[in-house]
Amino acid sequence: MATTERGSAEERVAAIHDAGVERVRVHFTDLIGVSRNKVVPVSMLDEICEDGINFCISAFCVDHAGEIVEGTGLGAEVDFRDANVRPDLSTLAIVPWERATAIAVGDVYFDGDLLSASPRQLLKRAVDELEQRGFRAVAGHELEFFLLRPGPHGSGYEQYAKQPGLVYTLSPSVDTEGVLREMEDAVRAMGLPYVGSNQEYFGSQWEINLRYDDALKAADDAHLFKLAVKEIAAQHGLVATFMGKPIQELGTSGYHLHLSMWDGAGEPAFHDPAAGDGLSEVCRWFIAGQLEHGRGMTAIMAPTINAYKRFLAQAFGPWNVTWGHDNRTVYVRIPRERGTATRIENRAGDGTANAYLASAAALFAGLDGIDRQLDPGDPVSGVSYELEDKPLMPFSLGEALDALEADAYFKEALGAQFVRAFVAMKRSEVARFQSAVTDWELNEYVNVL
């Protein structure tokens, strides 16, 4: 079952006062995964919890370049009015790397109602839908990232630690300045359920793992974890990136989302000891839902231009929409543990995905599989990349957006407001990339043509 309990709101407020906190960062996540916030003095916390704090709704329309994207339905169409964020005190935590500061994640309201396009609200709705069917959703977020050092005079990035061949090693020989140790300590001090860390396959590629929990709390934890990693790196003059493939010569980083269900009696709904493979019918239906909507939810799981290089690399990222037992080349991997640890692992994401949106998408997909009692077919074994009779992943963000818009169930489940805004934001991103002149083009053509 879920393992951690949030302290009560009263306990958390008392803790920040006892620690001498002077200010609170009230955060919300936008559609592209950026954590936006306002800072208020701690003396205003009660007032902010009651009345919220206003910001322009167009913050949901701002792209990676800082420009407001047209056509989202959340900008000029609503006169750039104010939205309102009210902190959820169950997320209140002290920020260890910033003096006298606490942080809380909030819920977004617009015109008096919860904003349906808000990623956190979408996840809450998915969780509620499953609860109506007697299931409690539990999630674990497994995120990989690179730690990079900006090159001189803006000349790109280089690895923080370059030693190759030291996968599953974490010591001063690879963490030469102790930055990873500082991140571990900060994550633990925030109260996030840290369970372990290691270097991944490439130098300066890391994974810090958090324990699973109820789906909303696990997404809150993942959101705060990514924030901690990026901000601590910045304090050291480094850049932590969750991009799928940030350096040409190196490999890719993934975002593996582990999901399980628990029934009303507190038993693991995905486990059936009488089944040959230990998987219940509910689990098989849930897997089938992932496959049914695998292409449709890829734009949410892999929401950047760069993310699709991970699929094309055929390096433990999915190439086709398949499932298998303890197989790292498939879309849905079933780890070998059973009993209370029975779960599915959706391997489509990279770390640029929004934790709330990725969770909501996967849960809505599984929900459809359960409601329609879909059959996932037989699991695949061996290297799934060699199979020619399985549906392929989208191999570009544009193709993934086409798949999202073609998935009628997914569009309805996610809601018209979210789909309109998200697709407009991402279509704009694709168009900006298509019109950009890249270093590759210059290196390929300038001297020879």
Describe the structure.
The protein is an alpha+beta fold and 449 residues long. The chain has a domain at 125-414: Creatine Kinase, Chain A, domain 2 (2-Layer Sandwich), CATH 3.30.590. 33% of the residues lie in helices and 21% in strands. The chain is built from 13 helices and 17 strands. It has helices at residues 9-18, 45-51, 119-132, 179-189, 215-235, 281-292, 298-301, 308-313, 355-372, 397-406, 408-414, 416-434, 439-445, and strands spanning 23-29, 35-41, 53-56, 82-87, 93-94, 101-110, 113-114, 136-150, 157-159, 194-199, 205-210, 213-214, 239-241, 255-262, 323-325, 332-334, 344-349. The strands form two sheets. Strands 8, 9, 10, 11, 12, 13, 14, 15, 16 and 17 form a ten-stranded mixed beta sheet that branches. Strands 1, 2, 3, 4, 5, 6 and 7 form a seven-stranded mixed beta sheet that branches. Helix 4 (179-189) packs antiparallel against helix 5 (215-235) and helix 6 crosses helix 9 (355-372). The chain starts with 8 loop residues before the first helix and ends with a helix.
State the total count of DSSP E strands.
Answer: 17
Largest β-sheet summary? 10 strands, mixed
Percentage of residues in helical conformation = 25-40%
CATH architect. name of the domain at 125-414: 2-Layer Sandwich
Instruction: Supply Rg.
Output: 22 Å
Order of SSEs: HEEHEEEEEHEEHEEEHEEHHHEEEHHHHH
For this structure, the CATH topology of the domain at 125-414 is Creatine Kinase, Chain A, domain 2
Oligomeric composition of the shown chains = single chain
- Cα-to-Cα separation, first versus last residue: 62 Å
Beta-strand content bin: 15-25%
- Please state the overall shape, judged from the principal axes of the Cα atoms: globular
Structural class: alpha+beta
Count of separate DSSP helical elements: 13
The first-level CATH class name of the domain at 125-414: Alpha Beta
Low-confidence stretches: 1-5
| Rounded average pLDDT | 93
What is the fourth-level CATH superfamily of the domain at 125-414?
Glutamine synthetase/guanido kinase, catalytic domain
